[in-house]
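The passage that follows is intended for readers who have already worked through the single-chain material. We present the inputs for a multi-component assembly, then the predicted structure in tokenized form, and finally a short commentary. You are encouraged to pause after the input and sketch how you expect the pieces to fit together before reading on.
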Amino acid sequence: MKKNPELRSHCPINYALEIFGDKWSLLIIRDIVFRGKDSFNQFKKSQEAIATNILATRLEKLLSWGILEKTANLEDGRKEHYHLTQKGLDLIPIILEMVLWSYEYDNDSEAKKIKKLVELIRKDNRKISEKVKKQVKEGIGIVYEYLDDQD
Amino acid sequence: MKKNPELRSHCPINYALEIFGDKWSLLIIRDIVFRGKDSFNQFKKSQEAIATNILATRLEKLLSWGILEKTANLEDGRKEHYHLTQKGLDLIPIILEMVLWSYEYDNDSEAKKIKKLVELIRKDNRKISEKVKKQVKEGIGIVYEYLDDQD
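Having made your guess, compare it with the prediction:
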């Protein structure tokens, strides 16, 4: 693991922003959590069209901060798979809180299609976050449709 | 209000990131919420040393997305004051969730000095967020020390 650069401050908001305060890092984590993606080529196909060099830089950064870890494919050693560490999984409550906010303020939000999940987050973010973390650890990507059929 | 640029997608994570996915926007909001700041010159004095042009750009963007609103000083019309709109205030639960995460993972986090607040967030983010919103609306900046003496 590379040594992390010096922080501008140890304010807790700043610490978080230095690690994932950009337009892409949390989208990669979204792709892992909600879409079950785990490889460079899969991340590259995001609907927001991330550039290859930006994706590579962001993955390196997330690895160096201990948000992601990388393993080689057992069957094909050349392929690398990315997984969330516990530190990365613990970003899920922040991401779900962002879903609530966007649901509220973006009239065209895709979150309008996952009202059941939105309700669960509103009721108890911590509880649903633990459930999502467990499913991600078991390799189940939480797709929107799936969650809409859950209790 | 300027017309907002086209979004890369209406994914709720993406919407949030297009608005505040950068290293500075949430620090400005932190300064309003925790430090009671409301003017350009006050924001400029952040410990993270924001550049004047970046601060100006970020304030414009936050105004255009309806996160901040601006009023003229009654006594000195040249001075402008920035306030959080309801949309901006509703970012507080996200920010508090980030505090929890950084508290956990940054050994030198300043959040170690606000353990009581951290406990309150962990117990019920929604409840403490409503309290913080109310205080911000009343013009009370929540300073760390103050919250450490609260029940």
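Commentary: Chain B touches chain A at residues 8-18, 21-24, 26-27, 30, 47-49, 66, 87, 90-91, 93-95, 97-106, 108-111, 125 (CB under 8 Å). Residues 117 and 123 of chain B are 10 Å apart (CA to CA). How closely did your sketch match?
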